[in-house]
Amino acid sequence: MNRFFITRRALWPAVFLGIASLSAGSVEPESVVFCSYNLKNWLTMDRFDLATKKTLIASPKPEDEKRRVAEIIAAIKPQILGVCEIGTAEDLAHLQTHLKKLGLDLPHTEMAHGGDEQRRLALLSSFPITARNSQTSLTYQLDGKTIAFQRGILDATVRITPAFEVRFLGLHLKSKREVEEADQALMRRHEARLLRKHMDGIFAANPKVRLLAYGDFNEHRNEPAIDTIMGDRQSESAMLDVQLRDRQGEVWTHFWDAADAYSRLDYFFASRLLRPHLDYRRSFIYSSRDFDKASDHRPIVTTLRLEPFVSKRPTGGKQR
After folding, report:
1. Which residues of 154-188 are buried (b: 16+ CB within 10 A; e: fewer)?
2. Has residue 8 got a pLDDT over 70?
3. What's this model's pTM, rounded to 2 decimal places?
4. How, if at all, do strands 254-256 and 261-263 pair?
5. Best CA proximity match to 86, nearest among 261, 254, 215
6. What are the structural domains of the chain?
7. Model confidence over 95-143: pLDDT tens digits?
């Protein structure tokens, strides 16, 4: 990995050309921008303050971090936005307010959670949400214990035009932090199996569904949970790993400051019938010099063309 590039000082602000924000009430769009972003604890929790070396009890995400999150999202201009680590409905409304001040109105929402009701998933859209089937009470057996799928599965269908709908599945698999309940890697593997089972049910009910699974999967590309999610590569229910790069050709989406480690943990997985609609030329990992002032994750972005076409970038586009 190019060490010069991956230092935060070497990340230049992105320039986005040709991505226009369209409202649901305007002329039918030719394409739609979707963004997935882990917001890093946009919620109320105990936080350690480095300046004072004290723990702040029941403290919200700092306002300067919230402002930078909103600025990054507004620069991308997504018509549909999936987020991880949002708190309450009030927190979600606060995010919408920040975005609206910057000219981005995403009025239609879906929220979901699992056993962890503090860190939730949310989908925000300028287009109507026509169906909701979020899974909030999934469990599995591990070492003789019943364990909850921590963040559940957000499941919402967005109608972009009367003839074009996309079903979005939002995920935030178990973190890599060790916990007392069970081995964290095995927990992710079981959560991945529950996701795969849910997707198989969707395909059984509607083989022609355009499905996009997105979010923070907390797994590296070669680990078992990712293989489970993708499924049998020869089957009609296989999910494509949409490989993205930033403007320098790098693929990492998460920076762990304490370990000085860069990882790809955030993914898009697309169904067979959605793949021809992926515009790789306008799909990328967002890069900015101060991305870490907002979150420890970088947003991932894809553009969906309503009319299918054959991409010239089958291995993933770069940020432009």
Report:
1. bbbbbbbeeebbbbbbbbbbbbeeeeeebebebbb
2. no
3. 0.89
4. antiparallel
5. 215
6. 3-13+29-305 (3.60.10.10)
7. 999 999 999 999 999 999 999 999 999 999 999 999 999 999 999 999 9
CA dihedral sign of residues 228, 230, 233, 239: positive
Which letter, b or e, does each residue of 44-55 get, where b requires 16 or more Cβ atoms within 10 Å of its Cβ?
Answer: beebeeeeeeee
Cα 248 from chain centroid? 21
Q: Tens digit of pLDDT for each residue in 222-252?
A: 999 999 999 999 999 999 999 999 999 999 9
What average pLDDT does the chain have? 90
Amino acid letter, 99 = L
Q: What is the pLDDT of residue 315?
A: 52
Largest CA distance in the chain: 56
Q: What pLDDT does 26 receive?
A: 56
- Does the pLDDT at position 295 exceed 50? yes
Residue with tokens 């056993």: 115
